[in-house]
Design a protein that fits this description.
The complex is a heterodimer of chains A (about 220) and B (about 110).
Chain A lengths: L4 H12 L6 H21 L5 H12 L3 H27 L5 H16 L5 H15 L1 H9 L9 H4 L4 H4 L1 H12 L1 H6 L4 H32 L4
Chain B lengths: L4 H4 L2 H12 L1 E3 H11 L8 H13 L3 E8 L2 E8 L1 H25 L6
Antiparallel strand pairs in B: 1-3, 2-3
Helix pairs in contact in B: 2-5
The chains are: A mainly alpha (about 220), B alpha+beta (about 110).
């Protein structure tokens, strides 16, 4: 027996009541739950809608919905980290490494114009904040698409991860400010860290856009 | 009906093989197909199925297609190009594993 539109909507709300905020999971779990209900109803047409729903719920198990969200989060996080590492590694191999080396050289050459190296390092990492603004903008823009939230998009933003670089850079430069001023070569590790931050930002932006486009295409959203 | 430890390690390969044979399938359809093929011997639970599908999708082996069916949306899974190639590799690996297991369990059959 097929469920009516109202009954499907009821099931969808029931699924959402388990704190399933993400649209891709709402769609998948609602469809599966409805199919199980229809199977139960076909076996015993005398059952009421709520009896069928309760039996379907027993088949799923009450903790199932939370578990599926947790497992999906873990999978997406792991896969995002893997893709990010893979893309970052590309910038440390030929030919992209040329660009990475150029960034390091330019940043190092510019440091010659600064007497206060700690100030220069702080400026570099401050620039990283500015450089991350497009990522912040996209993160806010695509938190929902057509009012729908997607776990696949939530877990592909590297914005919060990127913030580690300026914090680490500025804190370390404060810690070693006297040493940096005395020993010029110490500016070099900071430039390397800053370059990694820039690459992290480029890779993060690319992966985020790629995932947003993929989700939009899959769910035919604009 | 069961899903033992022995089957768990092969779940991804089973899913990929089914998708290779059937083109695109949705979650419930996969559980039912496995039940029919194994005559009810193997029951893939939702708790095992969806994490496996999501993992294969995240790895780029499966793609997703959404269709409207019976007044609701349905999420279909299908193999990507990489997924199709990987299915062949995993099936070869699984066949080798079965052959080796048979040899170990029934050593007298091999001369």
């Amino acid at each position: 027996m097929k469920l009516t539109t109202e009954q499907i909507e009821y099931v969808s709300n029931y699924i959402q009541s388990f704190d399933i905020k993400f649209y891709e999971l709402q769609v998948e779990l609602t469809d599966h739950f409805v199919l199980i209900m229809e199977e139960i109803w076909n076996e015993d047409v005398e059952l009421s809608f709520h009896q069928v729903k309760n039996r379907a719920e027993q088949s799923f198990g009450r903790n199932y919905f939370e578990e599926v969200v947790l497992k999906r989060k873990k999978i997406l996080q792991k896969e995002f980290n893997r893709s990010q590492r893979k893309m970052m590694a590309e910038y440390l191999k030929f030919p992209k490494i040329i660009m990475s080396i150029l960034i390091v050289i330019v940043a190092y050459r510019v440091s010659f114009f600064f007497e206060n190296l700690q100030k220069y390092i702080a400026m570099l990492f401050g620039f990283l904040f500015v450089f991350s603004l497009p990522m912040l903008y996209l993160w806010i823009k695509y938190r929902t698409i057509d009012g729908k939230r997607f776990l696949a998009i939530d877990y592909s933003s590297a914005y919060l991860g990127l913030m580690i670089f300026p914090q680490l850079g500025i804190n370390l430069s404060n810690l070693f400010k006297d040493e940096i001023q005395k020993n010029y070569i110490l500016v070099f590790p900071f430039i390397i860290l800053w370059t990694l931050g820039i690459l992290f930002c480029i890779v993060g932006l690319h992966l985020y856009k790629k995932n947003v486009n993929k989700v939009k295409k899959q769910y035919q959203l604009t | 009906m069961k899903i033992s430890q022995l089957y768990k390690g092969s779940l991804n390969t089973i899913i990929m093989k089914l998708l290779e044979e059937n083109g695109k399938m949705y979650g419930y359809e996969i559980t039912q197909k496995v039940k029919v093929i194994t005559q009810g011997e193997l029951n893939i639970t939702e708790g095992a199925l969806y994490p496996a599908l999501h993992k294969l999708e995240a790895e780029g082996l499966l793609d997703v297609e959404i269709e409207k069916v019976d007044n609701r949306l349905r999420k279909y899974y299908k193999l990507t190009e990489t997924g199709t190639k990987e299915t062949v590799n995993r099936m070869t690996e699984l066949e080798d594993f079965i052959r080796n297991m048979q040899t170990l369990v029934n050593p007298k059959l091999e001369f």
